[in-house]
Design a protein that fits this description.
Helix content: 40-55%
Shape: globular
Radius of gyration: 17 Å
Number of strands: 7
Distance between the termini: 38 Å
Number of helices: 8
Largest sheet: 7 strands, mixed
Order of helices and strands: HHEHEHEEHEHHHEE
Length: 256
């Protein structure tokens, strides 16, 4: 059995997916373009993917992560705001919630409260001062980061002492049957359905990419080892229905 000390940390969440781009240098431009191009379809397809349960799940995941009323929240990879919308409800005031994302198209497609702040930026270089947020969330964007070690160090930096982290991600099922079912649904069924209901030609591609990045992603043990290496403590994984992972952690120190 591997101990936490024997699990290696990681940088790239997965190897370059050359069916979509050739090098890591090409990856950022590819992702920005495809997310911008498919933003108008994203929420509709996501609701279909989650069978309408996504909002309720995100709400409960943030509660499990420790989000409480009055906390100052940063949502990294905010996208169209599906996690941030639930953070606004739990924080009690949308003005307490800030979202950051490299895709202006995704943020423009959001339906978030006007008093919530949205900023263009990347997880590896957050445009905020040290010790600034009580809670940091990230929903299904871990696989799109170029360097997890750098990003997690940034998360640790901008959190206040005692601040909490909650990263939502889809991870591989343990069983071969579970992996086959999820792959068939996400890489086959969903892209096929998007051809009939999407407005943008790249929408089917982004959902195929979504699965391919899940399949190639480093295992949860390496993600948690990298969180610990960034100086975060009480790192753990909560798993729902075998594939929905919630990585939780705390920045050392007392809450001010």
């Amino acid at each position: 059995m591997k101990t936490s000390e024997s699990v290696p940390t990681t940088h790239a969440p997965h190897i370059p997916l050359t069916d979509y781009y050739q090098t890591e240098q090409d990856r950022q431009a590819y992702l920005r373009k495809i997310f911008d191009n498919t933003a108008a379809d994203y929420d509709r397809i996501e609701a279909m993917l989650a069978w309408g349960t996504g909002s309720r799940y995100r709400h409960q995941a943030l509660i499990r992560g420790g989000l409480q009323a009055g906390m100052k929240v940063l949502d990294v990879g905010v996208g169209t705001g599906l996690v941030a919308a639930q953070a606004c409800l739990l924080a009690g005031d949308p003005a307490l919630v800030t979202g950051v994302d490299p895709s202006p198209g995704m943020m423009a497609a959001s339906k978030l409260p006007k008093t919530m702040v949205l900023m263009e930026g990347r997880a590896e270089s957050l445009p905020f001062p040290d010790n600034h947020f009580d809670f940091l969330s990230m929903g299904y964007a871990l696989r799109h980061i170029s360097d997890l070690g750098v990003a997690f160090a940034e998360f640790q930096r901008v959190l206040k002492p005692g601040g909490r982290l909650c990263i939502l991600e889809i991870t591989q099922a343990k069983s071969g049957l579970g992996q086959w079912l999820l792959k068939t649904y996400m890489r086959g069924v969903i892209p096929l359905l998007t051809r009939f209901i999407s407005r943008e030609k790249d929408t089917a591609t982004i959902w195929r990419y979504y699965w391919d990045s899940i399949e190639a992603c480093v295992p949860p043990e390496q993600v948690m080892a990298t969180l610990r290496a960034a100086g975060l403590t009480q790192v753990k994984q909560h798993l729902e229905v075998g594939v929905f992972s919630e990585y939780q952690a705390i920045k050392p120190g007392n809450v001010s």
